[in-house]
Amino acid sequence: MERRQYRFFGRVQGVGFRYRAYYTASRLGLTGWVQNEPDGSVLLEAQGKPEDLERLVNDLRTTSRWIMIEDFTSRARPLDPEERSFRVRDGYDF
Predict the structure, then answer these.
(1) Which residues of the chain have pLDDT under 50?
(2) Does pTM top 0.90 for this prediction?
(3) Domains delineated in the chain
(4) Which of 5, 10, 45, 81 has its CA 20 to 30 A from that of 32?
């Protein structure tokens, strides 16, 4: 198990990105969250098997003609043993 934080840049707000992330992460059995950021990026934290985290990112990059990821960053985060699901955060939750 590992946890990663991703920040996606490009056409990622107003195109269903957060709900695509929710659907895909839930299907893969990942936990975490996704939220829009004030700068137009989308922040996502997910935890699970490394290969499933890779599948999540690949799916987000290739399955929608509306989403256009121009760049993204990734960094390791500590595991959250209490987290049980993946959720969409509304607005700019901090």
Answers:
(1) 94
(2) yes
(3) 2-80 (3.30.70.100)
(4) 10
